[in-house]
Design brief:
single chain, about 80 residues, mainly alpha, 3 helices, about 80% helix, rod-shaped
């Protein structure tokens, strides 16, 4: 009888440990995902802020050249 109680107690502690371990894994995955998302967003903002990115879709050469010679080129 004592053996059954002891085995039951060990089994309960093992399942409790497994659940606690899953929570830690979830937290680590969530934090890593959030970190990756933050780095991705900052990189995206930095990448899209250059005129080369705009030129990938828009025809900008003559407009860029006229801006370079205008009085607003230092802005």
């Amino acid at each position: 009888m004592k053996f059954k109680k002891m085995m039951k107690m060990i089994f309960e502690k093992m399942t409790k440990f497994k659940k606690m371990h899953k929570k830690k894994k979830r937290r680590i995955i969530l934090l890593a995902g959030a970190g990756f998302f933050l780095v991705f967003m900052i990189g995206s903002v930095e990448f899209t802020s250059h005129s080369k990115f705009c030129a990938s879709c828009h025809y900008m050469k003559p407009f860029y050249r006229s801006w370079e010679t205008s009085s607003h080129k230092d802005v």
